[in-house]
Backbone:
């Protein structure tokens, strides 16, 4: 029990966070909530956490800023190489085969919970290098953190964040700038960055690939199922889903198939006869 945040207020915030985002804020993260709350209270007229909770309930803009403040945005370029090996060696070849037979040479992909952009930019580089000439790439990348989205849209990263980008990619897709490295426009133009709260359905349709890695871990089972059902609806009849390597759909009632490749385990949707 702390002097700043009563148990009652803490429960009130946890319920509000859950109802607005699906994020299950555990009791062990109480000190994180307290420090972020103190920061937000300094930025507006609320005197106590209780005042601030009331303000949140009537103010959507402040709710966005608050949710931004409590999210964890850790990410990096080429995060989990085994996923990229799976994308390159299995998913892209399978999609090329399936889509070519249908006369469709376009890949539509979504990075749900894209944080500051390293993941969708990595995907864009991989698609550029591994799709045959003439294929179109359309990437949507979304998050509820406005700060992270701003960094993503700007596409400028300090040198310290570039260590996981192989030299070949760095030279081809980035240019050096005073603050570090800037993503070239040829890559940026493949991606649409957008604010989206995964609690709600997206208007996206016919997606071939969804990356939602290291996001579900913050949700409870019911909220995870809700998000997974949204993905199902947004994906085409033959598509792949990547979730974080410590996340799983095990035990969830879903039609997604478990796809075990030589590199990593992912999920897939196939509503016809085509094998994933
Ligand atoms: C740990 S980062 C993962 C980033 C990236 N996918 C990766 O694996 O490197 C989790 C991201 O999910 C976002 N997030 C959490 N809850 C969300 C929600 N309800 N809607 C949209 N984004 C959410 C956070 O803002 C954060 O940027």
Residues:
């Amino acid at each position: 029990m702390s002097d700043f945040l009563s148990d009652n207020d803490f429960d009130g915030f946890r319920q509000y966070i859950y109802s607005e985002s699906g994020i299950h804020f555990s009791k062990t993260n109480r000190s994180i909530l307290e420090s972020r709350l103190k920061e937000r209270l300094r930025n507006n007229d609320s005197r106590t956490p209780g005042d601030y909770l009331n303000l949140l309930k009537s103010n959507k803009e402040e709710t966005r800023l608050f949710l931004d403040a409590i999210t964890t945005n850790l990410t990096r370029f080429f995060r989990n190489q085994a996923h990229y090996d799976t994308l390159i060696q299995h998913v892209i070849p399978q999609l090329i085969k399936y889509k070519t037979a249908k006369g469709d040479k376009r890949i539509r992909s979504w990075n749900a919970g894209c944080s500051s952009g390293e993941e969708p930019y990595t995907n864009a580089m991989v698609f550029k290098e591994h799709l045959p000439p003439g294929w179109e790439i359309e990437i949507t990348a979304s998050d509820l953190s406005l700060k992270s989205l701003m960094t993503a849209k700007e596409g400028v990263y300090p040198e310290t964040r570039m260590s996981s980008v192989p030299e070949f990619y760095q030279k081809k897709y980035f240019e050096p700038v005073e603050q570090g490295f800037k993503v070239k426009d040829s890559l940026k133009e493949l991606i649409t960055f957008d604010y989206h709260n995964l609690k709600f359905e997206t208007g996206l349709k016919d997606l071939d690939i969804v990356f939602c890695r290291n996001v579900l871990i913050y949700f409870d089972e019911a909220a995870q199922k809700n998000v997974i059902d949204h993905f199902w609806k947004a994906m085409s009849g033959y598509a792949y889903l990547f979730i974080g390597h410590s996340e799983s759909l095990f035990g969830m009632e879903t039609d997604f198939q478990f796809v075990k490749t030589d590199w990593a385990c992912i999920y897939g949707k196939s509503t016809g006869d085509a094998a994933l």
About this structure: The pocket of S-adenosylmethionine is lined by residues 21-23, 71-75, 79, 113-115, 119, 143-145, 148, 197-199, 213-215, 218 (CB under 6 Å). Residues 81-101 form the longest helix (21 residues). The longest strand covers residues 235-243. DSSP finds ten helices and ten strands in the chain.
